Amino acid sequence: MNRTVSDMAYSLLSYALLGLIQQKPASGYDLRKVFTETPLASLSDSPGAIYPALRRLEERKLVTGIVEGSGLRQRKMLRVTAAGCDELKQWLKKPLAQSDIAHRLEELMLRFAFFDNVLGEESTLQFLCAFEAGLKIHIPHLRKCLNQDGPKMALCARLALENGVLGYEAQLKWVSHAIHSYKKKVKQS
Predict the structure, then answer these.
(1) Beta bridge mates, 78
(2) Mean pLDDT of the chain
């Protein structure tokens, strides 16, 4: 039986690799460099994680590798297959749940990073609007917790909760800016 990635416990690292390869065919070395030199290192920059994840993508026929070059200059260039493209689209189209806002901001931003190239700007704007709506529900809940429980908390706990609230408020400010930027771009087109 052919199992899709959706049937598996699939890591953000694997989705990030799939998205990067979809943007531009790359070798394992090229991809490892991206993870080493960018904020994607938070997912992993370890060859012990990246290369096995690439192998699993290949085994599941989501990417295909073609050896290019000759002699010592050979590189296996990876490209996304039609099945890999479908899997990436399925992940990106996944509806935004309130629990995503509360617990998976890193995943949401990773998904956002691939939207334009895979689904287009209209879908990107829809995603941002859903993200904004979710934040507008979540932030008042956090503020209520801070107002009700904050005075009873140890100072460090209260300050940690304040940090969370301020972080979500900054995220909302950014999302509003991103929506404005997309709407402005549409008007100029």
Answers:
(1) 26, 65
(2) 90
